[in-house]
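Structure ticket #2291
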Amino acid sequence: MKVSMAVQSRKSVRGFLPTPVPPEVIRDVLEQAARAPSGGNLQPWHLHVVGGEPLERLKATMRERIAGMPGGEGSEYDIYPRELVSPYRERRFQVGEDLYRCLGIPRENKPARMAQFANCTVDRRMGPPQWSDLGMYLQTVMLLLCEHGLDSCAQECWAIYPETISGFLAIPPERMLFTGMAIGYEDTEAPVNQLRATRAPLAEFAEFIGI
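Resolution: structure written out below.
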């Protein structure tokens, strides 16, 4: 698969088949992705890969936690800026509307929306440049997964339950939960997977100087 094909075909998949993912494929992808750019070669990413019975326990734990505390425990960083300005506010609003439209959940049905709401960590001493390294690593992982016929969804929503996740995974106190990522085979029949988020045209976000 060409890189351009992986970029175009990748999307956030939220409904997966029960088909297990071969562990050797995950190991291979994560090892290859370590060639992602890293300022100063710090390689600040730390991964916790969960599958099988431990994953089932984690999901059961999270179902109970979300039901009891739907607003989360409080993230250790702002997932989005507290005051989103235009055009970012409209883009976020639109993708949310498109998502719940696929699910047939009306805007006013807040309990149903919360039900749909339902790991990569970084050393707390790292700063924004190293966080950008995490993003490049995760994108590299997602593109390599496409090459293997696998789908994924990066999920920063896990970051609003840092106490539960950190306790379950025994994350040391010097590391901060950054994001989670679901990996598997897309359930093409799942309504939620019909969403294909739009992207702004090039002229809206790029300026060309001298070319």
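Closing remark: The two ends are 30 Å apart (CA to CA).
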